[in-house]
């Protein structure tokens, strides 16, 4: 090839530089800092607004006898003032008091739970709660679906699921932005294990408290053990339903089995029936609920 003159080589070098510059490339093969890169670079997305508010301004409770404080103050009677969810007792410091303060809790919390209620009763309770347009609704239900006259009479899991789904739909129709805290069903077999040590408690059980689990409390034969295991499995199935249904609603938070796992001791059980939570037990439920409601989750 003929040699290029000094002038020709200089022209070629300038031309190459122009071409490379137009292509936006550097000698390392990376992109240059041109305006085209700035236009193509994606803008950082805004931080998503959290769905869960850990400081709700009002609270409504639905559920059964536990939320009504049954047998916590006197035998076979409700005591809503010590309810873990909405009570005003200083001994318990309910979830409402912890979240709202005592003064605001008195005017911005409502208890629609009913002793003896089952999941089939929850849609009606939820309709009452929804009418208040609460920022948070607490749910504790399912124990009475397992506590039937016999294991065979327990609520089928499929019915339990459909009734809970209907409860959430009922809430969403009137209060679409309400948050829902769902407590797991307590470990009924553990309550039997603790309560059967008390003679008076077992006498109260004979009045009809959770016969499927507590009936013939001292019987340890194969049939009695199978009956209790059947009830216990149903409780675990109910908790699976609560977890799965709640997970489909972005404003619903299940306690992850915290109430089920809590080891109620004799101090946490009513000394009237040795089954329902005592005032101390109600306080422990309030602690669990407050921890779960205020927890930061990804």
From TrEMBL:
Q: Mind listing the UniProt keywords for this protein, alphabetically?
A: Hydrolase
Q: Which residues form the signal peptide?
A: none
Where is the region Disordered? 31-52
The record's listing under InterPro entries reads: GDSL, PLB1, SGNH_hydro_sf
Task: List GO molecular-function terms, semicolon-separated.
Answer: hydrolase activity
PANTHER family in the record? GH22081P-RELATED, PHOSPHOLIPASE B, PLB1
- Any idea what this protein is called? SGNH/GDSL hydrolase family protein
High-level lineage: Bacteria, Bacillati, Actinomycetota, Actinomycetes, Kitasatosporales
């Amino acid at each position: 090839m003929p040699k290029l003159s000094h002038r020709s080589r200089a022209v070629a070098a300038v031309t190459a530089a122009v071409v490379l510059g137009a292509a936006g490339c550097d000698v390392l093969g990376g992109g240059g800092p041109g305006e085209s890169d700035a236009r193509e670079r994606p803008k950082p997305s805004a931080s998503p607004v959290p769905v869960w508010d850990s400081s709700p301004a009002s609270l409504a409770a639905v559920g059964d006898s536990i939320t009504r404080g049954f047998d916590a103050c006197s035998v076979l009677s409700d005591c809503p003032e010590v309810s873990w969810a909405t009570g005003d007792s200083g001994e318990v410091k309910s979830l409402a008091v912890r979240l709202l303060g005592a003064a605001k809790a008195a005017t911005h919390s409502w208890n629609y739970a009913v002793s003896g209620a089952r999941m089939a009763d929850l849609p009606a309770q939820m309709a009452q709660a929804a009418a208040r347009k609460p920022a948070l609704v607490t749910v504790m239900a399912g124990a009475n679906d397992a506590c039937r006259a016999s294991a065979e009479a327990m609520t089928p899991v499929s019915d339990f699921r459909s009734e809970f789904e209907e409860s959430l739909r009922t809430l969403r129709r009137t209060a679409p932005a309400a948050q829902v805290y769902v407590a797991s069903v307590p470990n009924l077999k553990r309550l039997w294990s603790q309560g059967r040590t008390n003679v008076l408690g077992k006498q109260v059980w004979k009045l009809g408290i959770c016969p499927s689990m507590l009936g013939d409390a001292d019987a340890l034969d194969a049939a009695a053990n199978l009956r209790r295991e059947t009830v216990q499995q149903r409780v675990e199935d109910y908790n699976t339903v609560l977890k799965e249904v709640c997970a489909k609603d972005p404003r619903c938070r299940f306690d992850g089995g915290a109430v089920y796992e809590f080891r109620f001791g004799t101090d946490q059980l009513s000394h009237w029936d040795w089954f329902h939570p005592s005032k101390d037990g109600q306080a422990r439920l309030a602690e669990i609920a407050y921890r779960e409601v205020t927890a930061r989750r990804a």
